[in-house]
TrEMBL record:
<dbReference type="Pfam" id="PF02190">
    <property type="entry name" value="LON_substr_bdg"/>
</dbReference>
<dbReference type="InterPro" id="IPR015947">
    <property type="entry name" value="PUA-like_sf"/>
</dbReference>
<dbReference type="InterPro" id="IPR046336">
    <property type="entry name" value="Lon_prtase_N_sf"/>
</dbReference>
<protein>
    <submittedName>
        <fullName>Peptidase</fullName>
    </submittedName>
</protein>
<feature type="domain" description="Lon N-terminal">
    <location>
        <begin position="3"/>
        <end position="181"/>
    </location>
</feature>
<dbReference type="InterPro" id="IPR003111">
    <property type="entry name" value="Lon_prtase_N"/>
</dbReference>
Amino acid sequence: MRQLALFPLNLVVFPGEKLNLHIFEPRYRQLVRDCLQDGITFGVPPYLNGEVSELGTELRLLSVEKSYVSGELDIRTKAVGLFRVEEFFRELPGKPYAGATVLDLPDNATADPVLHAQLRELIEQLYSILGLRRIFVELAPDFRIYDVAHQLGMSTEQEYQLLAAPTEVARQHLALEHLERILPVLQETERLKERVRLNGHFKNLTPPSF
């Protein structure tokens, strides 16, 4: 176990994700200064239902893109791993920001190839409906669920379930279940939109033969 500075946010960050943040609170401006001076990392546990979640993602500061006269900052970060909070502190000793004693969690990235193929097909359908075909074309063949999680239309709570899943196969099952549930709804919505667009237009229909 080790101690880690924390920056709770109302979102889920997945390992490998690059996250840009605008920092305006003085305590987190101090956190950025400590990252620059001491090379420390910090954790982002999702703030859900009025409390700091047990699981979080560790982020490394990549760069400060802009410093404002007011002291605010634009920063670039990258998520590098998962942790579980063992003991939470509202302030670390001598620091204005929160922290925790954390336990690093292993990353089981082995996927089920059959589930992967099914998911790729469903994700292609989803992106086509949403007009995101270009993003699908750019998707790596060996994508992980983490890579597409924010484009699956999940709630923050559902994304946290993905974060809590211990293996890639478990994440594949969660994503597959979600897509199989929402795709029929989206497809029916598209059909309804098409009927609305055609309403009032001249229709070239073939009458039935009887």
